[in-house]
Each structure stands twice: as structure tokens, then as C-alpha cells.
Automatic annotation (TrEMBL), chain A:
Protein name: ABC transporter permease
Principal subcellular localization: membrane
A Pfam family: BPD_transp_2
Protein's organism: Rubellimicrobium rubrum
Compartmental location: Cell membrane
Sorted UniProt keywords: Cell membrane, Membrane, Transmembrane, Transmembrane helix
Any single Gene Ontology cellular-component annotation: plasma membrane
Protein's UniProt keywords contain Nucleotidyltransferase: no
Molecular-function annotations in GO: transmembrane transporter activity
Membrane topology: Multi-pass membrane protein
Length: 360, 272
């Protein structure tokens, strides 16, 4: 074997140290970085705890009461549900700008089908859920099969769906009183139960079905993402779609399923939206887009895909809820809420970049 | 032009190639990447494929691994004609490829990556209705396979792949191929991105896999590595097989001369 470089032989003969060595990083910061790498929702959880304690200190003990804390849950239920949908899409390195529009159009379909056409309410609800899923599937098809960038696709469908929503509903609101009389099922998610209230029904923890649904939804999705092949594929597609394809993952099918599921979840959010505001209004839910993306980013889910835990999205939504309610109770200008949320977004993305460096 | 069955390495007379390509043609517009190319891989051997950039060796490898569908020609696995439309189909037939990019998801664990696209589910209701993955079984299997190849300096099977070194990643990718590749393993530039020490380890891995009886196709630009581990060397030039040489009868400069066209070999096959 002529021409073999000499150093090769040296290495071959005198190789004493193992090549594939794995040594633990010693410093505390490095360990923390590794812990965050394996449990990405830890940061938002810590931030959430700290902000609750902070506002409890500033506002006083009434902030720490079950009533206040469950009020925050009620205020974030919509954002939480939509953020769950947004999380799925963002994990595939996409983004869904049409979540709010899908939610509103689905709620309008539920309302109009029940009131304009007199379709039985459960069927109207199913139709609304079907419309949401179909719209999500169209997004997914455009992204996965037509290979268009998710941002552009959903920017387009957002406008189209919103316009359809106004054209179809003729900008007409169905009043809360009518829904309560004739189709109470539409307000299903507003039903409440109390734990620990006094005999006058005051205080204690108040849960709406919307809140319960949000928590159940995130628990189920968390299970699916962690413990099923589909969930692993969602991460793999977000991480590196080419690698996933070569490993035998059906990238196209995974993407379409994610967008379709996102559409279905948004339709549920539309149903919960009726419960939250009481009426069916085509102008509602406009802020859900930005709020859901904010919750996801603060929740430590990487906008570049493949990283993060869906619980982070819930924590992110709760952090925003704690800040808005806390600052309102303090009586400061509500603009401070946006100020701090903006700060949190930037810090969250900076932390995400730092955690990624664990690889290096 | 020779007829199909006559093209055989005389030194391999009487043996049946496990993977065979005959008259493969692939055109990209006006560019002919494969020009009636033949290809033979025999059981238990390491066949290196070398060729200049643009000679069409990646297209050849993609054709046998299912990533490219040839316009003409036949691919025979175990003497049976096969027509792969996707890498998944080739994999199901027992041909595993370790791509140069490794095709792994950096944020996921070693075990997750080894089973990507062929996950194991829990038995019974948990697996059937709740689609739950059988993590313990997958982790045990991954650990076993890494152990087999002497890679158990990797402590934690749940470690994210991105926290591994280049050599460790390559090791995991080879272990994945060895674990599932029942017939043929294709390695595309396995040492290209590695340091000297890590390359050594990967070459040892390659020899180790061969000793298990699985034939390997090795694509590499690194002549010392090729000459060290290969049993035969397929020299690819201008879209087809120029010749097959044995490393013990040739120097590296011979091989490079054939590859670049500076010299023309006497015969397509040498009589050993």
C-alpha cells in the first residue's frame, strides 16, 4: 500500500484514546444549557412562576387567589387553543397566519348554518369543524404539494378566508340572546363549574369548559408529539425535511396532516370564541394570529422548526395573561403590557439561539 | 456492445452478484449522467466506487438506492429484477444507504433517529389505539446495535444527535444501516467530513460490517481509505464503468490516472 500517509499508520497503531468519547460538561451554566436543551419548556415555566410571584408581590394576595388565577386561564383559553394549532405548524418550520381567520369563519358557519338554514345545531357545529379542517387541508396541500412557502400561502388564505367570512355572513352578528334561546350548544364552551366557592357562589376557582378543553387538547397533543411515530415525524420534518424524507418519513403526508389538524383545532377555537363573547360576530378574533404566534415564541418553540414542547405554548399564553391582568390590576397604562411582551419575545428568541448552541 | 449476461468479472466466475445493474441510462435534459452503465456487487465484498466529479457515480448510487429512477436498463437484486421508485422501497428490499449528509434529525435522540420511518409500537391497545411507541424496545435495540459495533462509548441513547461529534454521528448512521440493511449497505463519502482519528474508527466499522457478511458499496474520494478497505474498485468515467481493479495490483496513482482519463486500462476486468 504505497502512498498511505504516515500519520495514518501512527494513528492506527498508537490510538490509545477512544474516539467516540462522551464527557459531561462541568460548569453550572453548561449543565443548565443542557437541561434546557432536553426540556425546552422549562424557561417559559420558570418565567411564568416568577411573573406570578412578582405580581403577587406587587398587587397583593388577591392576585394569588384561585379566582384570579382561574380568571387568567379563562382569558387565555382562546389564545391557548389557537397557540396549540400554531405550535404544530411552527414545529414543521412553517407558520400559519390564517389561524384567526379559520376560527372566525368556522364560528360564523356554525352560527349561520344553525340560524339561516335551520340545520340542527350539533350538525351545524360539525359543519363548522369540517370547514376548519378543509381550510387547513388546503393550506397543507399548498405547502406540501405545491411547495409554496407557508408564510405566503397563509398570508393569502388569511385574506381570502377573512373576505369570505365577511361576504358570507354579510357582516351580520348573531346576538347572544338568540343563541342562548335557540342554540345553547354553540355556547357550550362557556359553561362553568366552580370549585371552592362560598355559598353565594363568589370566589373559588372557576373553570369554563373552554379552559378544560384547552388543557386536555394540549395534554393530548403533547402525548401525540412525544409518544407516537406521527409526533416524531413532525419534529423530524421541522428539523430537516430532506433528511426526514431520506429516512423514510412521508413528509408530504405529515405536513398536510399538521395543517389539517391545525385547521380543526382553529375551528374548535371558533366554537370556544362563541362561548367567550356570547355572540357570533364576523369581526371577532382578529388578534388571535399575533397572539398565538407570541405565545408560541415566548413558549420557547423555535420558529425554525423541530424544537420545543407544546406545553411551552400554554405557558407562553399564560405569561401574556399574567402580565395583562397583573398590569391592569396595578392600574398602569395597558401599553406597558405590549412593551413587556415585546421584550419577552426578543429574550425568548435569544434564549432559543443560545440553547441551540449546545450542539456545537 | 456485449450482451447482458456476458458482462461479468472473470475472477468472480461462477458467483452470482447480489446487486447488478445492466445498461443503466439516466439523462438530465441534454446531460447524460449514466450511459449504458453496468454494475456488479458480489456477496461479502466491499466494492469501492471512484470517479471524477461529474462522472455520474452519485447518479449510479442513487439509481440503485431508489433515489433516482433510471430511464433505461435493469437493476437486479439477488437475480430478481427490481424497480425502486423511492428510497423507502429500496430500503424495504434490504438496501440501506448512509448518505453523505447522514439524513438524521439533529434535535431527536439516537434511538428516534435509528427508527425514523419504521418505529415500533407497543403491543395491544396502547399501540393499536393510542399509537404509542415502544420506547424501551427501541432503546434496547439501538443500544444493542451500537454495542455490536463497539460504539457504546455513547452513554445515553436518548441524547440528541446534534450533541454527538461527527464521528459518533457517522457511527450511528452506519449502525442504523447495519441494523436494518439485510442485503446491501451503501456508504456515501463516510469519511469526508471526519478527522484522521474519527476516519479510522469509521473504516474499522466498515470492515466490521463486512465481517458480518453484508456487502458494502463505498463511494469515496479518499484513495488511501479506498485502497485500505476495498476488495474491488469500480472506476467510473463518463457515465459508465471504465474498469474494475483490485487494490493489490494497482497503485493509487494508477487509479487516479484511470479515473481522470490519463491512462486507459487494458481490460475492463483484470484477471487476478
Amino acid at each position: 500500500m504505497s502512498g498511505t500517509d504516515n500519520f495514518e499508520a501512527v494513528v492506527k497503531e498508537r490510538r490509545t484514546e477512544a474516539v467516540a468519547e462522551f464527557h459531561e460538561d462541568k460548569t453550572l451554566i453548561k449543565r443548565f444549557q443542557h437541561a434546557l436543551h432536553s426540556a425546552p419548556s422549562l424557561v417559559p415555566l420558570i418565567v411564568l412562576m416568577v411573573s406570578i410571584l412578582l405580581f403577587a408581590g406587587l398587587v397583593g394576595t388577591r392576585f394569588f387567589s384561585a379566582a384570579t388565577l382561574t380568571l387568567i386561564l379563562q382569558q387565555v383559553q382562546l389564545v391557548g387553543i389557537v397557540a396549540a394549532a400554531q405550535t404544530l405548524v411552527i414545529m414543521t418550520a412553517g407558520i400559519d397566519l390564517s389561524v384567526g381567520a379559520i376560527a372566525v369563519l368556522s364560528s360564523v358557519v356554525m352560527g349561520q348554518f344553525a340560524f339561516r338554514y335551520g340545520i340542527p345545531v350539533p350538525l351545524a357545529v360539525l359543519c363548522g369543524l369540517g370547514v376548519g379542517t378543509a381550510l387547513g387541508t388546503i393550506n397543507g396541500w399548498l405547502v406540501a404539494v405545491m411547495k409554496l412557502p407557508p408564510f405566503i400561502v397563509t398570508l393569502g388564505t388569511w385574506q381570502i378566508i377573512l373576505a369570505t367570512n365577511f361576504l358570507y355572513s354579510a357582516n351580520e352578528t348573531i346576538r347572544a340572546q338568540d343563541i342562548e334561546d335557540r342554540a345553547p350548544l354553540l355556547q357550550f364552551f362557556a359553561s362553568t363549574f366552580k370549585i371552592g366557592a362560598d355559598e353565594n357562589g363568589r370566589g373559588g376557582a372557576t373553570f369554563t369548559f373552554g379552559v378544560i378543553f384547552m388543557i386536555l387538547l394540549i395534554a393530548v397533543l403533547s402525548y401525540a408529539l412525544r409518544s407516537t411515530a406521527w409526533g416524531r415525524h413532525v419534529y423530524a420534518v421541522g428539523d430537516d425535511p430532506d433528511a426526514a424524507q431520506l429516512s423514510g418519513v412521508n413528509v408530504r403526508g405529515t405536513l398536510i396532516s399538521v395543517y389539517a389538524l391545525s385547521g380543526l383545532i382553529c375551528a374548535f377555537a371558533g366554537w370556544a370564541l362563541i362561548g367567550r363573547i356570547g355572540s357570533v360576530s364576523p369581526t371577532s378574533g382578529a388578534e388571535l394570529n399575533i397572539q398565538s404566534i407570541t405565545a408560541v415564541v415566548i413558549g420557547g418553540i423555535s420558529l425554525f422548526g423541530g424544537r420545543g414542547s407544546i406545553w411551552g405554548a400554554l405557558f407562553g399564553a399564560l405569561i401574556v395573561g399574567v402580565f395583562s391582568l397583573g398590569l391592569r390590576l396595578l392600574g398602569v397604562d395597558p401599553q406597558w403590557t405590549f412593551f413587556f411582551i415585546g421584550l419577552l419575545i426578543i429574550v425568548a428568541v435569544a434564549v432559543d439561539q443560545w440553547i441551540r448552541k449546545v450542539a456545537a | 456492445m456485449q450482451t447482458q449476461t456476458q458482462v461479468q468479472d472473470p475472477t468472480m466466475a461462477g458467483r452470482q452478484p447480489i446487486l447488478m445493474g445492466r445498461g443503466l441510462v439516466k439523462r438530465y435534459g441534454k446531460v447524460v449522467a449514466l450511459d449504458h452503465c453496468d454494475f456488479d456487487l458480489y456477496p461479502g465484498e466491499i466494492l469501492a466506487v471512484i470517479g471524477d466529479n461529474g462522472a455520474g457515480k452519485s447518479t449510479l448510487i442513487k439509481a440503485v438506492s431508489g433515489a433516482v429512477i433510471p430511464d433505461e436498463g435493469d437493476i437486479l437484486l439477488d437475480g430478481q429484477k427490481v424497480a425502486f421508485r423511492t428510497p423507502t422501497e429500496a430500503r424495504q428490499a434490504g438496501i440501506e444507504t448512509v448518505y453523505q449528509t447522514l439524513a438524521m434529525s439533529p434535535a431527536l435522540s439516537i434511538a428516534d433517529n435509528m427508527f425514523m420511518g419504521r418505529e415500533l409500537r407497543k403491543p395491544g391497545i396502547l399501540g393499536q389505539w393510542f399509537r404509542q411507541l415502544d420506547r424501551p424496545r427501541m432503546e434496547r435495540f439501538a443500544r444493542e446495535k451500537l454495542n455490536d459495533l463497539g460504539l457504546m462509548t455513547i452513554q445515553n441513547i436518548n441524547q440528541a444527535v446534534e450533541t454527538l461529534s461527527g464521528g459518533q454521528r457517522q457511527g450511528v448512521a452506519v449502525a442504523r444501516a447495519a441494523a436494518f440493511g439485510s442485503k446491501v449497505i451503501i456508504l456515501d463519502e463516510p469519511t469526508a467530513a471526519l478527522g484522521v482519528k474519527e476516519s479510522r474508527r469509521v473504516l474499522e466499522l466498515i470492515l466490521d460490517v463486512r465481517s458480518r457478511g453484508i456487502p458494502i458499496i463505498l463511494i469515496s474520494h479518499n484513495m488511501p481509505h479506498v485502497f485500505e478497505v476495498a476488495d474491488r474498485i469500480h472506476v467510473h468515467r463518463l457515465g459508465k464503468r471504465l474498469c474494475v481493479i483490485r487494490p493489490q495490483n494497482h497503485t493509487m496513482s494508477d487509479a487516479v490516472a484511470y479515473m481522470t482519463g490519463a491512462r486507459v486500462p487494458d481490460t475492463e476486468f483484470e484477471t487476478a
